Model the fold of this input.
Amino acid sequence: MIEKKFEKATASERLSQFMLKYRMQIIILTAVIVTGIVAYGVSAAVVSSLTAKGISFVDTVEYEFTKDSDSLSDAEIETRRGEAMTKLTPYLSKGGIVGVRANMLAADITYARKDYATAKSYWSAAASKGAKSYTAPLAYYNMAVCDENTGNLAEAAANYGKASDVKDFPLASHARFSEARTYEALGDYKKASEAYTKLTAAARADAWTNLAETRLIALKAEGKIE
Done:
């Protein structure tokens, strides 16, 4: 029993001697760790602050663009579009939610100009920057709409499909029906049937599902699918 107490005392003394001998190194190491933690916290706070400012800026641009726009002439609206795009330009290349929001607004503006190819490029950027965000399926959907407006039906079908594949997307039924409808327009009745069947299998009991069932019956009656 005495021997164990002696061993404990010896170990304690050795630890004290070690800490005394290397006290400066320990102090420096501790300071480095604490500084790193503080720096990380400050960095995170700065990033959060910059994000908030970026979102606020995009919101302001959108507000100024849409404020009292109903009473404006076409020329005045176009002037506002130009001003908004000029303000948004530095934010289009940013990552995260700020870049997503900036590109979404730019897409809306260029779509209104009927510049569908450019609008699609902004929607594509929004989809890429917010790939895991709830905005991604909306971006895919609008990319598909732009594709249809430029006559690119194959890409439209693919993008409608990507949008409808995202779980909990509010427009999933509409997107799936649009995918099938676009494949029909391409004459690819097999893929159209597959898309319609996916929609009916989801059993959402909405108008798009009912239309899908009607189209499947019609395609079979016309001998286009088995």
User: Anything to note?
Assistant: The domain at 134-226 is CATH 1.25.40.10 (Serine Threonine Protein Phosphatase 5, Tetratricopeptide repeat). The longest helix spans residues 23-66.
